[in-house]
Description:
The complex is a heterodimer.
Chain A (H helix, E strand, L loop, with lengths): L6 E5 L9 H5 L4 E3 L5 E3 L9 H10 L5 E5 L6
Antiparallel strand pairs in A: 1-4, 2-3
Chain B lengths: L11 H7 L17 E3 L43 E3 L46 E3 L6 H4 L33 H8 L9 H15 L11 H11 L7 E5 L9 H8 L1 H15 L3 E7 L5 H10 L6 E7 L8 H10 L20 E5 H13 L1 H5 L9 E8 L5 E6 L4 H7 L7 E6 L5 E4 L10 H6 L8 E6 L4 H14 L6 H4 L1 H14 L4 H13 L8 H15 L1 H8 L13 H4 L11
Parallel strand pairs in B: 4-5, 4-7, 5-6, 8-12
Antiparallel strand pairs in B: 1-3, 2-6, 8-9, 10-11, 10-12
Helix pairs in contact in B: 4-5, 4-7, 7-10, 14-16, 14-18, 16-17, 16-18
Amino acid sequence: MSGGEWIGLRVDPIGCRAHGLCQELLPELVTLDEWGYPMVAGRPVPPELVGEARRAAAACPTLALRLVRAGPPVR
Amino acid sequence: MNEPTPELGTPMPDLAAQLPGPVSAAPPRPTVTPPEYRLVPPPSVPLPPLADHPSVPLPGDPVPHSAPPRSSPGVPGPRRPTMSGGLPAVTAPPRVDGRRPAPPTRPRDPRPLPPQVGGPLPALRRVGGLRPVPAAPGRPGSVTGPAPAPTPQAAPVAPGSESRLLAGRHQARPGGLAAHLHTHGPLPRAELSGRQGARRLIELVELAGLRGRGGAGFPTARKLAAVTNAGNIRRTPVVVANGCEGDPTSGKDALLLHLAPHLVLDGLALAAHAVGADEAMLCVHRGDPLVEHLERAVAERTDDPAAVHVVTAPTRYVSSESSALVNYLTRGDARPTSAARAAEQGVQGRPTLVDNVETLAHLALIARHGPDWFRARGTADSPGTTLVTVGGSVVGPGVFEVDMGMPIGRVLGLAGGTSTPTQALLLGGLGGSWLPMPSAVDVELSHEGCAAGGTGLGVASLVAMPAAACGLRATALMLRYLAAESAGQCGPCMFGLPALAEDLDAAATGTMDRELSARLRNRLEIIPGRGACRHPDGAVRLVSSALDTFRRDLTNHLYGRPCDAVDASIPPVLRELSASDDGGWR
């Protein structure tokens, strides 16, 4: 993922256990639903937040939060 | 998870031998227990002019000898993917039959069959929300109505009609390979042989515009091409025929597998050839009475290029989802995954084609008759015919083969019309949508027609909802079932579906206030698209359509006026949903 590419956030829905750290670390892009599961913004991560997003992804206890190249969801 | 991964190549019989008991001595499909279904002759009453549309409610044939009894529940111990019935094909060594679990030891189903059902068709009891016997209470039209005699009658082919998938099967009795060849002729193996022939086959499917009949409607040729391209000498593709008809409102796959197994197996062999697969699996639910029937059909065939295995998967609503099937065939866990696409990394990491059994049957006909023949029926965007299951408050429920694009009103006409005043139709199964009557009759049964009607075709099934029933209550019951059938892996599904069910209960019992209503609307917005599979999306679609379709009920209930409708008016196929008693995914 070199510079210039879109970077998006993706949650692995099966891996996520609603620890909520991502929302603590990245409130700009992550909100929690009523059950504590993250809802990530569908838009690209702004360049100034990429560092924070990486830290949030690294801090996820289940490694369910991932940075992905933005584009149509992979499935 | 620490079980050895089943090898696809050789040791299928070993897997079977490891089983603690007979393969299908597992809990039977528990979803819709009470009503006995049987194929019925079409209503002798008001068949509207159907000149060019075949009706395929077939005259009941009492107890086809090939239909095995249901097995009894409660076999302890772990289960693994069980594969048997492999076909000794050109490339595979003959299977050792002796190691297959012996069917005769299978415990008999202890439940007595209702005496009214003189000739229950075990293999067909799931056939749709078909004719429940005895007729449900609250449906006066069918309780005392002119129920068609259960005795076989003459083949009900409307003049000029031509059934494709079920051609020559008007006796509701499956024929063997010889009968199949007599009806459809041999496969044009010579013209399609070799790699060039495989490419030609994909081309034919593309020209035909065949779209998947499992619900998603994805162009089949694109799937075939994707799997072909992903395959190489080290990763030989696999083909999976999905016959696990998960939706209780649909019975078309069971009927097709019962009446025309060789058409499906033809398609499976062709698809395997097209993508270069050496292994093919035909998946049905565990305990499905069709297993033996299918194994016999597989054993009859000698010319198929790939070894065919009949595999039974756990009887859960979501275990027939593509990634769940792949997961089951790889790791023995029938829950959906968020893994890569099956076309690239499917069963055991091999490129995998997963196609609905009806899709494969169409493929077999396209190979025989060509794309122009296929396109002679249906619409430009949804070519061909489709099987549709019609149930609920109609005079003659059944599975019908209709041209894609037929207005829903005509489809209802094939089922003899509604048997009681009907307020709405459920289109597309439990993950589908409610459509209000009478405007629903104009919606065309095609992908583009349903999209124009603000919905999706999904699994082609229709359930007519009597005006006497409460649509919100019915939807609440359905949501309870869908919530219980969640694999419980993804938060929005695990918690969201029970929450939706609760909200609907509140709506149905008149305890919903404006705050609760706002919360429900919010939930409908945040749940979709956040699961590994589309199960929660389907549930949300159902609830959203219910709120629109049953708006009047909702308003009444909002003002604290619960309706006095009784549950008995809800069609049994929706009322008597019960989640699998066995929560196993293996």
